[in-house]
Amino acid sequence: MDSPATPIRGTGGAAAPLVVIDHVDKHFGDLHVLRDITTSVARGEVVVVIGPSGSGKSTLCRAINRLETIDSGSITIDGKELPSEGRELATLRADVGMVFQSFNLFAHKTVLENVTLAPMRVRKLSKKDAEKRGMELLDRVGVANQAKKLPAQLSGGQQQRVAIARSLAMDPKLILLDEPTSALDPEMINEVLDVMVGLARDGMTMIVVTHEMGFARKAADRVVFMADGRIEEEATPEEFFSNPKSPRAKDFLSKILAH
Ligand SMILES: Nc1ncnc2c1ncn2[C@@H]1O[C@H](COP(=O)(O)OP(=O)(O)O)[C@@H](O)[C@H]1O
Ligand SMILES: [Mg+2]
Questions:
Q1: Closest Cα to atom 27, ligand 1: which residue?
Q2: Residue 94 CB-half CA count within 13 A
């Protein structure tokens, strides 16, 4: 197979799942936020995580790249257990791109600098190579003409596309997107979803927390429905939306689809 001009796929080829989450539990004090979570994500798979507010979706994402510790169970990425600290943890974080609801760009760096900084520091790319690749990625998300501006000069939708380009610049094996369109004005949501659909079609492994059912139907291989810290249900989007099995999922869908 020809490698694409701008490769975005993680390496590692084997048929084994990229992410394996095995009997994971997590408490915040008395609050049991992740309850016996077991699931896995295959290479190239797009998993949409949905569920009511407070059900543990963000905590799960954060646990996957070690922004949160877990109490028990295990999470492996590409066969490796999550390191707790040090250089190995930095490497793992570089392998897992993360895009948050709030764009989290460096305010005093240009758009291009936002995309080149980590590849230069962590991947040791030369400035020239990092900028070449950075411009390719900005082009890919449709903001190459904004490269010299500061983030505040861009719209929210443009900033979130820069955040996606920035996460891709590290050649991650996986990207986690936690409600990437929730902070956007409605007219900007689609430009970000279109970029995400493109990534999904190109074979990027993605875990996406979103209530955008259009995206889930178009791009997801699987929907994971969480409630009260548990995975209540996992199904293809077609199955899940047309025939949710659990009462919680039925109730949740009736609320979000009522509008
Ligand atoms: N750092 C924290 N300390 C204490 N409680 C937290 C913390 N982060 C999240 N929680 C609680 O954990 C639960 C799950 O939160 P979260 O994972 O953010 O849910 P979701 O993303 O599905 O809305 C919620 O009850 C939330 O209030
Ligand atoms: Mg959340």
A1: 54
A2: 17
What lines the ligand 1 site, CB under 6 Å? 28, 31, 33, 51, 53-59
Instruction: Give pLDDT tens digits for 123-146.
Output: 899 999 999 999 999 999 999 999
In angstroms, how far is CA 218 from the centroid of its own chain?
A: 16
Residues in the chain: 259
**Probe residue for ligand 1, chosen from 33, 68, 178, 231 as the CB with the greatest number of ligand atoms within 8 Å:** 33
Q: What distance in angstroms lies between residue 66's CA and the mean position of ligand 1's atoms?
A: 15
Beta-ladder partners of 48: 208, 223
Query: What is d(CA 120, CA 171) in angstroms, rounded to the nearest whole number?
Result: 13
What sign has the CA pseudo-torsion 115, 177, 79, 237? negative
pLDDT in the model for residue 146 = 98
Residue 72 has pLDDT above 70, yes or no: yes
pTM over 0.85: yes
CA distance 19 to 174: 9
Tens digit of each residue's pLDDT (9 = 90 or more) over 3-44: 444 444 444 455 799 999 999 999 999 999 999 999 999 999
- Per-residue model confidence (pLDDT) at position 214: 93
Q: Residue 231 and residue 225: Cα distance in Å, rounded?
A: 6
69 Cα: distance to centroid of ligand 1 (angstroms): 13
Rounded CA-CA distance 220/258 in Å is 22
